[in-house]
Amino acid sequence: MNIVLDNNVLISALWSDNSKPAVIINAVLSRNFTVCYDYRILNEYYHILRHPKFAFTEWEIQSLLSAITTNGISVVADYLPNIPFTNESSKNFGKNFCKKFYEVAKFCNAILITESKKDFPQDSCVITVADFHKKYFD
Fold first, then answer.
1. Residue 114 CA, distance from chain mean position
2. Contact 13, 113 (CB under 8 A)
3. To 5 degrees, how large is the angle CA 61–CA 101–CA 2?
4. Which residues are CB-neighbours of 57 under 8 A, at least 6 positions away?
């Protein structure tokens, strides 16, 4: 099954080995799910995981992202015009910074897993970590 991971899922997984996001990442590492991404998502992962406030080691970051790029699917997703996003801008990532995750999910017919659905359009492909965990791990 193809999935797209919001960057907050990666952050939460690295923070806590026993968290629901960590369970999802472990399933990705076991190749139970395939992460879809594009260059924009990968750049954001690199950027956000290196932020000093998280204090992740370079080894942690490289191990996680290497597993995603080695076992995942890199795509060039179609641009989706006229998709309404509630979070129109971010001082760190620019206008429609969540849109790339949604575009890749739609392109790959994947489930987009996020900590909060509030930044994404109402769509059955967008699911919270808690709901995904309940559906596939409980």
1. 7
2. no
3. 80
4. none
pLDDT tens sequence across 7-38: 999 999 999 989 999 999 999 999 999 999 99
CA dihedral 57, 63, 64, 65 (to 10 degrees): 100
pLDDT at 81 over 80: no
For the sheet with 2-5, list strands across it.
73-74, 34-37, 2-5, 111-114, 126-128
* pTM for the whole structure: 0.89
The C-alpha atoms of residue 87 and residue 73 are separated, in whole angstroms, by 27
Please state which CATH class domain 2-137 belongs to: alpha beta
Among 107, 115, 110, CA closest to 131: 115
Q: What is the mean pLDDT of residues 47-70?
A: 95
